[in-house]
């Protein structure tokens, strides 16, 4: 059912959000059946791409990461995606009463998971780690996730569009703060000896 909704959001998002709103999902079902697999796509793809094919800025001068340095980075990236997904879901749950919504944490988690799905799927581009191509694809996925966020909040949370816009903007702010926190943690870890090592 998740896959059908996922593709439905690509073709007719407004109708699909209405269908998703009527579904019943448990916390374990969302996390164990969907989120943990979606979150694997970017780190696994980047691990394969950077260790087997090499990283390139413009399609030339390929640099490969060593498996020993890429593996812990991929594992940390995977768990940071899961933690970030849970954190944004919790913040959505915490803010919902302020905006007149009546949803559970499970519903906030499924909403966040569906909204972030284009970004997770864009992780497949990591198999071809060419900087300009990756940036182009990921930016497209981010734009579509933002579209799903702003279209989906009023429908999924059953609130007026005016309040939905403010709610969606608040969730976006939380997401951006999480991203900044992730970048800061990355800088700290790299300074602590987890920086990537390149093959000669």
From TrEMBL:
<protein>
    <recommendedName>
        <fullName>Yip1 domain-containing protein</fullName>
    </recommendedName>
</protein>
<feature type="transmembrane region" description="Helical">
    <location>
        <begin position="107"/>
        <end position="125"/>
    </location>
</feature>
<keyword id="KW-0472">Membrane</keyword>
<feature type="domain" description="Yip1">
    <location>
        <begin position="7"/>
        <end position="181"/>
    </location>
</feature>
<feature type="transmembrane region" description="Helical">
    <location>
        <begin position="165"/>
        <end position="190"/>
    </location>
</feature>
<keyword id="KW-1133">Transmembrane helix</keyword>
<feature type="transmembrane region" description="Helical">
    <location>
        <begin position="31"/>
        <end position="55"/>
    </location>
</feature>
<dbReference type="InterPro" id="IPR006977">
    <property type="entry name" value="Yip1_dom"/>
</dbReference>
<keyword id="KW-0812">Transmembrane</keyword>
<feature type="transmembrane region" description="Helical">
    <location>
        <begin position="75"/>
        <end position="95"/>
    </location>
</feature>
<feature type="transmembrane region" description="Helical">
    <location>
        <begin position="131"/>
        <end position="153"/>
    </location>
</feature>
<dbReference type="Pfam" id="PF04893">
    <property type="entry name" value="Yip1"/>
</dbReference>
<dbReference type="GO" id="GO:0016020">
    <property type="term" value="C:membrane"/>
</dbReference>
């Amino acid at each position: 059912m998740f896959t059908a909704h996922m593709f439905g959001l690509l073709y007719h998002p407004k109708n699909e959000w209405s269908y998703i709103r009527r579904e019943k999902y448990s916390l374990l079902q969302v996390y164990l059946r969907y989120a943990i697999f979606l979150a694997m796509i970017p780190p696994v793809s980047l691990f394969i791409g950077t260790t087997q094919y090499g990283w390139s800025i413009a399609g030339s001068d390929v640099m490969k990461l060593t498996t020993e340095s890429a593996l812990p980075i991929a594992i940390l990236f995977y768990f940071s995606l899961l933690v970030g997904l849970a954190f944004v879901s919790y913040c959505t749950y915490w803010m919902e009463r302020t905006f007149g919504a009546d949803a559970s944490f499970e519903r906030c988690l499924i909403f966040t998971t569906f909204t972030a799905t284009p970004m997770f799927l864009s992780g497949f581009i990591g198999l071809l780690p060419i900087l300009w191509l990756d940036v182009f694809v990921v930016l497209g996925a981010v734009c579509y996730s933002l579209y799903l966020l702003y279209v989906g909040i009023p429908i999924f949370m059953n609130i007026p569009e005016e309040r939905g816009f403010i709610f969606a903007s608040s969730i976006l702010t939380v997401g951006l703060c999480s991203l900044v926190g992730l970048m800061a943690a990355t800088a700290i870890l790299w300074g602590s000896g987890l920086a990537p090592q390149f093959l000669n």
